[in-house]
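Supplementary Methods, section 5.1.

A reviewer requested that the exact input to the structure prediction be made available. We therefore reproduce it here, unchanged from the version used in the analyses.
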Amino acid sequence: QVQLVESGGGLVQAGGSLRRSCAFSGEALRDYAIGWVREAPGKEREGVSCDSSSTGTTNYVDSVQGRFTMSRDNAKNRVYLQMNSLKPEDTAVYYCAAQYSYYCTGPSGYEYWGQGTQVTVSS
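The structure derived from this sequence is encoded token-by-token as follows.
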């Protein structure tokens, strides 16, 4: 059974940085596309980033491009999200999510989800 356990997050001032970590267990991470999704009050669920296991490339939503960096360590079965230059509009619950696929297909394709952690950016 695949499990995703997240850590990191919290409260930070605008312009600050946070690092999220996601521990993947139960299967081999190398066989999964994995990403980060966020949900803000009153807004639709949004795919923040996704790392395709087949191409080794990471896609980002335009609003975080250049500020967020996602990385994966298949040997340690861990995924990270480094968030820099944070803005109040980045405030949301952030989830780590994965699907048994070599390709990213968007938030609706994820089969497994972490517990989610609140990230709050104050102005």
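DSSP finds no helices and eleven strands in the chain. These observations are discussed further in the main text.
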